[in-house]
Specification:
The complex is a heterodimer. Chain A is an alpha/beta fold. Chain A contains 32 helices and 16 strands. The longest helix of chain B is centred in the last third of the chain and has 18 residues. The chains are: A alpha/beta, B alpha+beta.
Amino acid sequence: MASVASPAVTLSDIQLVDYTLETLGSLGELRTQCLRARAQVCIERAKYVTEYLRDFSVPEESAELRRARAMHYFLSNKAPLFFDDSLLAGTTTSKPFGAPVYPELTGLTIWPELDTMSTREKNPQRISPEDAEELNLRIFPYWMERNVLETTRTRCHNPPSMRLFERIVFFLAGKAGAVSHTVPCYRLGLEKGLNAIMAEAAAREAAVRGKGTLSAEEARQAEFWQAVRIALQGIVNYAGNLSRKAAELAEQEANPARKANFVRMAEVCSRVPANPASSFREALNAIWILHIAVHAENINMAVSPGRLDQILYPYYRRDIDSGSLAVQEALELLGCLWLKLNDNTNLVPETAEELFGGAGTVPAVTVGGVDENGQDAVNDLTYLMLRVTELLKTRDPSLNARYHYQVNPREYRDRVAEVVANTKAVPAFYNDVAAIATLENQGIPTRHARDYSVIGCVELSASGRSYDSSSSILFNLPAVLELTLYNGKRPVTGEEQIGPQTGDPASFRSFEDFWKAFTGQLGWLIEQAIELNECLGRTHQECLPTPLLSGLFEGPMDAGRDLIFGGALYNSSGATHIGFADTVDSISAIEKAVFLERKYTLPQIIEALGKDFAGAEELHAYLLYRTPKYGTDDPVAVKNSRNLVAFLYETYQRHVNYRGGRYRPAYWTMTNHAGQGKLAGALPNGRKAGRVFASGITPVSQAAADLAGCLLGVASLDALQIPGGEAFNLKYPAIQDQDDLKRFSQAIEAYFQCGGIQIQFNIMSYEMLLDAKAHPENYPELLVRVSGYSAYFKDLNDAMKEEIITRTAYDLRTGSAVAFPERAKSMLPGN
Amino acid sequence: MTHPLELGSNLVADKLVEKFRECLESEVAEGFLTLLLDLMAAVLFFNARYRENIKRFDACYVFRTADDSMVVTAIFRHDRLEVWPHRRKDAQPNIIITFQNPKALRNLLLAPKADILGSMLRQEVRLEGNLNYLYKLAYMARRLQLIATRAV
């Protein structure tokens, strides 16, 4: 039974309808500027970090200290810039909308494009000739033998797993490009202030050094605390520079409102984040500066601010109660933070843009749910954040609404649903009951499990306490299916023997024989992916410690150990899976066609796959329309989906990573299901060669005709076996009135009560999406939910657009799939 | 008029540029690699600005077809590029680039864009070694193309 509204909700109108972009100061104009901004490559960080390491660092010093000093050097020299009328000071890069270069990771992949990336057709990223020359002649050469991939190749003697990764079509190793994917503990920075954290680090260091002769572990601890102090001082220096620059601009500014804003920013940055925040505005700006600083050290991929409605609430409540803050100003400040979170993008080479493009940096913000005591945590700020999201409709931040159907009020659930209906895409819904139980099952104590946040796309994390590296492995499941059907080979990699020889499929006498071969290939490939992740993790330990982030986390300071070495309270590595639904349906198709009905033999199916079903139309139609589909109540499909999830869970959980945490399987795909789909042959579920796979944990487009069956099919998967999180996409053509909205909310509630962890929506019809594809100029701001994050539809590649168009749309009133337009049927994966 | 590659009146270099342009404009990819490397070597020799790219850059590249019917070794050392139509015995390659056919190699390095990831995805090339060396070479090749076609 849902409880009544929490006492923390005092708003008379939780919709906040009186507040619009027209009434919220300069927010409307800032939003326009944000949406118009064109990406520019920013070399500032690469320049300073390279310069320090190349010219000033002491090679004999530990990596921990060298890295801390490099961060200190960069942040102390980082330009204090003010591009617009934002109420918050600080910028991620030196450009209004910048793509920072991380040469120690994958930055060098843009080297061939330095002369052309400014003018490329899809999502160009501008770079000046001077900056291109700086990268070409002075920055990139330094990193040729030193970036993560090359260091790993040398350290691990170019292992087979790395060569497999470089084929791209089996699995991707996230650590080549990032760890990031985490939720820092910004609360520490707000409550204590960096000066106090640095003093604590200094005291701990002095206490250990005072012992005289140190053990190796004690020496490492002392260096760690020293490194934290050095790195955090860089943040304080940057804030000081922002303060001085704001004061200088205030002196020069004639416009009274702008002058006053500069004066306020100068005051704020002179206090935070060095000192504890004493107001809502200080807390917000402190969070923003800390977020910038984390990106100095960690690539801008899915570093997620966490539960901002909880972290910021004490400051909001105090200021509102004292009369020093009005709801209007709080909304403006929050809006500025939302837009600031859009001030940077990933540096992406052209092919990656074509294959996987359109993603933002996915800083996930989480709201609602329950608190550490299990009580309703929804408060006024929750509703302010929903309103800001509803008004701005920007790609980032990725807003995630937690909902505990036994504790949170229905009016909260309905308000979130209304915001989804109005934005057509955000926020995503999370089931607190399932998510908390899933984290508890991973050994997270209940209080910390209840305080979970979402990382990036959909990954669950004990906020600021668990270092999850949730994007460590992106695993291609249909690749395993092909390895099984071709006895260890894949059509796309030709005659090369990739996996073990698990038998000629013609020799399989039972479905159990097939399953044994399939799981044999699957287990082998998982071992490869994990082996490489471990190698890359060791390289991170050797080259890329994170003293700055470690100072903003629970665990490292007490342990005297960097996050990278397992200093967090909890650890894990995430492995997400691409093509889940296509794989399940293919397995089920084989079981039914070959072993249950004995209508076709495996060699017959394999021969048809090789010809992309040409000349085998009857077989194709049978596979497409007469075999069990995941997302329905067909017992074969239900069994195989559950068995696959169980196998993956058991296999991953047997492995402990280099930080002492377990591997967690997940099911979100960003745009990889489109990119990998382009490279895969035809599959036994009837999907033709080169077509996109279904996204996340979503059933194959047009495969599940009944909404209730679809929801039950996904919810029937054991949430405890999906600890890394899942992205379930659902589409409704429209939510037209209050009755529709009620049905919408009730469907979510029912799905959650059946055990589903997560669900996200696109509220748009086939016709509208087809029109948006044909006439992108008419839909410049159309926001869509991809697979765990939001993107502007116009930025996606054609394959991804078609995947979103073809996702099954359900009529909320009938619960049935809406007929797919005849004229667009060529887009369907089976056509 | 000054030659865009700053090759002066060197007739051999002029001929190389002309052939390179023809190669870029045609569908025929045969001979592309030799032409590219020969032109690169010439421009590196004559053009001080372009030569900046290989200052203190010692590197060895081996290009080969899967059946070794064509093998080329390219060595950068002492601010120069040396090219051999075979695999040198003393070569210690930083990267070995195995390509399906000349067109695949051209797609990898030049036209219509230096599509390294795409070439790998299509399994048209196999790379063994340090990919960063290929990124650098692709940049230099692309720049050469832009200079030769007077795009920069």
